[in-house]
């Protein structure tokens, strides 16, 4: 069975494990997390440390992990002196990340062993922008935010990283007719109160970011049968 979840944003890690248990997730299954396990909530670094040792869980890069990587200069050695010696360009990158909820992630890195910091940065640098999986003759494109500047004639290799990381699709947007696109990034409550805390499904895409970073409970989706699991 293949499961997908997105935008956990530091959601309590113990509850996340309870959610996997409720879905009977096992070593025979596979989980794709479609980016943004960090920031806004206080448990993001717990996910990062856990992911290092999971053989059947894969993190796709989210825009928040990309912001972390843009500030990786901090993590060679995280200390106050490094923060004082940042260049204007580095300060701008850090300010942007902090404006997007980096507080808890930075604190987590402060208390982490250096070897763990290095391992996490290396892991995130290898995280893919998208994956394609097939289940019961249905193909799925998994990515963080859908596809910005979508063109049916475009190859996936022709999209930029920002196209995968920072897109905000409209309800009327269409993607591939023969491939279901699954993404997060845009909390579903942004599309109207009637979608609050719910997955949105259209005939060409599925948005699974139900707003865990804003107090909603995340939903785990099993794409084999489209069953949803929540606490």
TrEMBL record:
Domain Calcineurin-like phosphoesterase: 2-193
Domain of life: Bacteria
InterPro entries: Ap4A_hydrolase, Calcineurin-like_PHP, Metallo-depent_PP-like
Pfam family, one: Metallophos
SUPFAM superfamilies per record: Metallo-dependent phosphatases
Family annotation (Gene3D superfamilies): 3.60.21.10
Protein name (record): Metallophosphoesterase
